[in-house]
């Protein structure tokens, strides 16, 4: 057994591994590699003793099938596990340790296990992917992002949407000689949805300026997009730009008069706008007294 080495370290987390059996140094996983692994001897403890592993983890769940696609995890534990895999060689067996601390540096939890990297399927580097594969990847990450939003895992969803957008942008510029109009429209629709979804994520953390930038990109592509207009209204409201917010919510209600969320937002904004108008009228009166 070799000396334990640090895979990654930061104030709130340290990843270590100790090689038991070396592997083939010529075959190492990287982004989008498919890995077949065996995980045994799993322990999890905190300051009080044995404890449960986060239920969001797929790799440490009973349903894990032994296959890991590097870069496709959402739970922080699984992403850390991927980092360890990327420091292993095909055929290697090691003991991995993941130590977590809180913001004050106090110990929170330690997970250890034995990992055997049985096989690595080498994939093309993403920079070598063609348009079809990039688009397929973009759709995959967008779909997973929507699932994570439904689970209220907004940070993980944002990461998926962002990755999807990067893949989609990597397909550009599209060659009109080889790409059908139908495909172009589908890719444009996906981009609109991604900007909208990213804006939704930003709004959940009151990042109004970032959300405003994203919905403006959406509306540049689709000026009548009611979801984008509604989210821009929310962003404007968060930035105290109430007149702009009022204009957008009225636009939404013109497009969809039965939109309950828009009706509720309009009712919230109405007294604010009335006060702004009254205050302005009083100022004008005083100017001409």
From TrEMBL:
InterPro entries: FKBP4/5/8-like, TPR-like_helical_dom_sf, TPR_rpt. TPR repeats lie at residues 192-225, 226-259. Keywords: TPR repeat. The keyword Magnesium does not apply. It comes from the Eukaryota. PANTHER family: FK506-BINDING PROTEIN-LIKE, PEPTIDYLPROLYL ISOMERASE. This is BDBT FKBP like N-terminal domain-containing protein.
